Amino acid sequence: MSVSITGLDQQPEDIDSKTFREFAKSYNKISEQCFMDCANDFTTSEVRRKEDTCINNCLSKYLDMTRRVAMRFQEYHMMVMEPGQTPGIPSTSSENQSNKSGLSSYLPGGS
Amino acid sequence: MMTSPNTMPDVSDAQMKILTHMEEMVVDTFNRMRLTCATKCTNKKFDVSDVIKQEAVCIDRCVAKYMEFHDLIGKRLSRDKDTYDLLSNPPVFEKTEVENSTSDNVR
Predict the structure, then answer these.
(1) Where would I find the beta strands (DSSP E) of B1-107?
(2) The predicted structure's pLDDT at residue B85
(3) CB of B12 within 8 A of CB of A12?
(4) CA dihedral angle for residue A10, residue B82, residue B93, residue A14, rounded to 10 degrees
(5) Are A28 and B28 in contact (CB under 8 A)?
(6) Which alpha helices (DSSP H) does chain A contain, by range?
(7) Are B21 and A21 in contact (CB under 8 A)?
(8) Tell me: the pLDDT tens digits for A38-94?
(9) How close A40 gets to chain B, by Cα (Å)?
């Protein structure tokens, strides 16, 4: 019996449509976030130069942070995951049953 | 060859999905803009129930600004493929198949 972690049997079109959907979600979130933080002057409907710089900075920060978070997240899971364990789902092996305190059940040796 | 005016061009299922997602995206943009501009432009005194002229003007400008922000950000995000990949793929794990080697369940 084999378990695949990601949907390997998806059609290419499904994958494309999923990735677009994720992109669209992220795009809208960034848009809203950067607008909230950068647009403070409503005396004009035009985007001023200061706001333009702010958008650039907001974007690069957001993207850098996303990269960093993704990197650390993957590192963490590679470090603590037992082989055969599904990521994000606590192990159901008997050693970990007694120790149910959240994150510590992931760490080798427990608490 | 004349096609009847009532026939739709053939749209594959995959394309329909993407069109649906695009529509969802527009609705999402609208909702976020609505909340953001309401937050930014509402005069917090709340002494009248109607939108006063100052707030109305603010909302007009806010909508214009939001759409322009949205366009600018969209252009910058789609400039390189790396950014698109970063945002469209949440960190999923290595696509390895995991074999459950115990065959004890088979009787």
Answers:
(1) 97-99
(2) 85
(3) no
(4) -10
(5) yes
(6) 12-38, 49-80, 94-97
(7) yes
(8) 999 999 989 999 999 999 999 999 999 999 999 998 888 888 776 666 666 665 655
(9) 8
Which tokens in the block code for residue B27? 């609705």
- Taking an 8 Å cut-off on Cβ atoms, the answer to whether A47 and B68 are in contact is yes
Q: Say whether B65 and A26 touch across the interface (CB within 8 A).
A: no
**In terms of C-beta density within 10 A (0-12 exposed, 13-18 middle, 19 or more buried), how is residue A33 classed?**
middle
Judged by CB atoms closer than 8 Å, whether chains meet at A67 and B86 is answered as: yes
The residues in B 32-61 lying below 8 A from A, measured between CB atoms, are: 32-33, 36, 39-41, 58, 60-61
| pTM, rounded to two decimals | 0.68
ipTM confidence score: 0.70
A6: chain B residues, CB-CB within 8 Å: 92-93, 95
pLDDT per residue over B67-83, tens digit each?
Answer: 999 999 999 988 888 88
